[in-house]
């Protein structure tokens, strides 16, 4: 659609002879949660790295609100309203929780400084369930709370589009319920989300649409119910039935 917040067309990335992403196209509307699914090694994280500017594509287009951003460095893409978390949490472990969140404001035009920045960071920490934890060293937190700090830092840049790379991975059932509620609350603020995810419960509950990748290529798109019942998707995850 012409008014899509994010438009990806014909995206490609090669590593030598390996086509890690091969002809990926997708769109994300304002306030929508799109699931990016696929078995391990299917190219999902590479796609997120291309969209966020960690990697440069070999071919294809990435537009944010109609602006071409393919190949731009991460800091410039961030200025167009894209922020992300990582598959492995990346915090400044020797800095406080509050300082980590303030660091997320660095590339925001007109961002606050000093006590005003600290106040905004504390408000974001309260939003993710870490009220009163601002002075704690990030490295002293539990795994779940480190994930929350990384999310608060991503939100500090005031994104229009948030890329979550397996943000729900490694959580126990209670933490998962809490985390899913938090993701849903972010969408209520009209922030679009692309979720790379393996937790099917979360995909069914949170995603409006899904794109499924296999061996770098998109193989299905549609609602969660549609793609999870697609025979091509089932084969990608489970392999061919030898008795068929």
Features of the shown structure:
alpha/beta, Rossmann fold, 2 domains, 6-stranded mixed β-sheet, 34% helix, 24% strand, globular
Verbal overview:
The chain has 244 residues and is of the alpha/beta class. It has 2 domains: 1-81 and 159-244, Rossmann fold (3-Layer(aba) Sandwich), CATH 3.40.50.300; 90-158. Helix content is 34%, strand content 24%. It has helices spanning 44-52, 74-79, 97-103, 114-127, 143-155, 173-187, 200-206, 224-228, 231-238; strands at residues 6-15, 18-28, 33-37, 59-64, 67-68, 82-84, 161-165, 192-196, 209-214, 217-222. A 6-stranded mixed beta sheet has the order 6-7-8-3-9-10, sandwiched between helices. A hairpin with a 2-residue loop joins strand 1 (6-15) and strand 2 (18-28). Helix 4 (114-127) packs across helix 5. This is ABC transporter ATP-binding protein. Pfam families: ABC_tran (PF00005), BCA_ABC_TP_C (PF12399). Keywords: ATP-binding, Cell membrane, Membrane, Nucleotide-binding, Transport.
